[in-house]
TrEMBL record:
Record-annotated Cytochrome c domain positions: 20-105
Signal peptide: 1-22
Taxonomic lineage: Bacteria, Pseudomonadati, Pseudomonadota, Betaproteobacteria, Burkholderiales
Keywords from the named record: Electron transport, Heme, Iron, Metal-binding, Signal, Transport
Any one Gene Ontology molecular-function term assigned to this protein's record: heme binding
Descriptive protein name: C-type cytochrome
Length: 105
């Protein structure tokens, strides 16, 4: 019985952590103006976050690669419109954003 309760507690804690990350990621995306060009489920100026997650799924270097794109900008991966650099985003914030983006389904 104790073991079952402990397992239930661990599962609830994991879901709570995921929910907190989802809220933090969305809040950060809003505050850094990412949503001016991106949306979770549909293409705007840039690709939908769920499409980014699908494209980079299973790539071990995806987080590092995307953090650099957030910080420095990039072009050509999703078409002709370049993504500008984001000097208002710190490296730690970029990691939080990218982890959140890669978790989108």
């Amino acid at each position: 019985m104790k073991r079952t309760l402990m397992m239930v507690g661990m599962v609830v804690s994991a879901f709570a952590s995921q929910a907190a990350m989802a809220d933090a990621g969305m809040d950060l995306a809003k505050s850094k103006n990412c949503l001016a060009c991106h949306a979770v489920s549909s293409k705007l100026v840039g690709p939908a976050y769920k499409d980014v997650a699908a494209k980079y799924a299973g790539q071990k270097d995806a987080e590092a690669k995307l953090v650099q794109k957030v910080l420095k900008g990039g072009s050509g991966t999703w078409g002709a419109i370049p993504m500008p650099a984001n000097p208002q985003v710190t490296e730690a914030e970029a990691h939080t954003l990218v982890k959140w983006v890669l978790a989108q389904k």
